[in-house]
TrEMBL record:
Ranges of residues in domain DDE Tnp4: 5-86
Required cofactor names: a divalent metal cation
Underlying gene: Alp1
Cellular location(s): Nucleus
Organism of derivation: Uria aalge
Keyword field contains Hydrolase: yes
Transmembrane segments: none
This protein's name: ALP1 protein
Main location: nucleus
Length: 141
C-alpha cells in the first residue's frame, strides 16, 4: 500500500483502537461491504490464532496446569513450549488429534466492557483503513 506498517495485535470490539491493536469496525447497519469483508477476514485470522493456541496447549499439556510452577519460571516454560511446538510443526511431526480431548477451547481473557472512545488513537483509524484497503486488494478468501 506504499506505507510501511509495524506489527499489530488482533483485538475484538472491546479493545480500544490503537495503531498497534487492530480491531473490527463496530457492527451496525451503516457498515460498507468493504468494512464487512474486513471484519470477516479479521475474524478468520483470529480463529487461526485460537487454533494455534489450542494445538500448542494440546501438544504441551503442562501449559494447562502452570499454576504449580513459580512465576519466575513461567515465561521460560511458555517460550520453551512455543519453540518446541514450532519445531514439531516445521518438521511435520504428527499432531495427535486425541490430544485435543484433554484441551478445551477457552476464551482468551479480554475486557468485559468496550473501552471508552477517549482511549482510541486517532492515527489508528488510518492504520485500520490501510489494512482494510490491503485486505480488499488481496481478493476473496
Amino acid at each position: 500500500m506504499g506505507k510501511a506498517q509495524k506489527y499489530v495485535l488482533l483485538g475484538d470490539a472491546t479493545y480500544p483502537l490503537q495503531d498497534w491493536i487492530l480491531k473490527p469496525y463496530q457492527e451496525d447497519k451503516n457498515l460498507t461491504q468493504r468494512q464487512l469483508r474486513f471484519n470477516y477476514r479479521l475474524k478468520r485470522a483470529h480463529s487461526v490464532i485460537e487454533n494455534a493456541f489450542l494445538r500448542l496447549k494440546a501438544r504441551w499439556q503442562i501449559l494447562l496446569k502452570c499454576d504449580d510452577c513459580s512465576l519466575e519460571l513461567l515465561p521460560t516454560l511458555v517460550l520453551a513450549c512455543c519453540i518446541l511446538h514450532n519445531i514439531c510443526e516445521a518438521h511435520d511431526n504428527p499432531f495427535n488429534e486425541e490430544w485435543l480431548e484433554g484441551t478445551e477451547p477457552t476464551e482468551l481473557p479480554k475486557p468485559c466492557q468496550p473501552a471508552p472512545t477517549a482511549m482510541e488513537d486517532g492515527q489508528a483509524e488510518q492504520v485500520r483503513e490501510l489494512m482494510c484497503q490491503y485486505f480488499e486488494s488481496c481478493g476473496e478468501g
